[in-house]
Amino acid sequence: MKIDVYNSIGEKGGQMELPKEVFGRETSPDLVHQAVISMRANQRQVIAHTKDRSEVRGGGKKPWRQKGTGRARHGSNRSPIWIGGGVTFGPTNKRNFKMAVPKKMKKAVLFSILSAKAKNQEILIIDNLTIEEPKTKTINETLTNLLNKVYPEQKKGKKRALKSVLIVSDKKDDKLVRAVRNIPKVRVIEARNLNILDAISAQRLIFLKDSIKTIKELFA
């Protein structure tokens, strides 16, 4: 599959061939759904926790004697039927939401997502995106103008065209990371760290030209 390569101001600078083994796969919605559900479950943090009667403080002494008071018999005020007592069947931090995601499955799903985005023209290749100073205003204007030129139908009279953008670089670029970190829904990730959740959640994937080679070497 051939795709246009742009510069940072939205001008075409030629074409490049996307690796077929990464961007030319068949899409499997069921496999993608299974992988996304599993990975989101693995990210889930077990925060909610209620104490059962063995964890509630106090209650070592019998509230009153067994017989002769006219009241119901009780052995401890830690009982779940008492106010301030333990909770029956409440959420605990011992729950495990982990789900196994095999490596082959991760790779197949990532290729499926990238292939679908390439087919839907949601992938943009640029030759370079170097900045001299990590200023949010500068990179915001650069990305907005770039996306408005490449995708003129999304502008619709608005200055802001950045909906959800993931920039994939071939190497670590601290200046670029610092420049975009205050822009909502815009992130920078190294090609070696590209994963399923980041790829599927971004509406636009901007690849630096050299990152395609890195992805092919690492994943394919």
Main beta sheet, described? 6 strands, mixed
User: How many helices in DSSP terms?
Assistant: 7
Q: Which stretches are poorly predicted, pLDDT < 50 over at least 5 residues?
A: none
Structural class: alpha/beta
- Our measurement of the CA-to-CA distance between the termini, rounded to an integer number of angstroms, reads 16 Å
CATH-level-2 architecture of the largest domain: 3-Layer(aba) Sandwich
Radius of gyration: 27 Å
**Proportion of helical residues:** 25-40%
Helix and strand element order: EEHHHEHEHEHEH
Explain what this protein looks like in three dimensions.
- This protein is α/β, with parallel strands linked by helices and 220 residues long.
- It has 2 domains: 2-44 and 97-219, Ribosomal protein L4/L1 (Ribosomal Protein L4, Chain: A, 3-Layer(aba) Sandwich), CATH 3.40.1370; 47-96, no CATH class.
- The chain contains 7 helices and 6 strands, in the order E-E-H-H-H-E-H-E-H-E-H-E-H.
- The chain has helices at residues 20-23, 29-43, 103-119, 136-150, 174-180, 196-201, 209-219, and strands spanning 2-6, 12-17, 123-126, 165-169, 186-190, 204-208.
- The protein has a 6-stranded mixed β-sheet with strand order 2-1-3-6-4-5.
- Helix 2 (29-43) crosses helix 3 and helix 4 (136-150) packs across helix 5 (174-180).
- The model has no long low-confidence stretch (mean pLDDT 89).
Quick tags:
220 residues; alpha/beta; 2 domains; 6 strands
Give a brief rundown of this model:
With 220 residues, this protein is α/β, with parallel strands linked by helices.
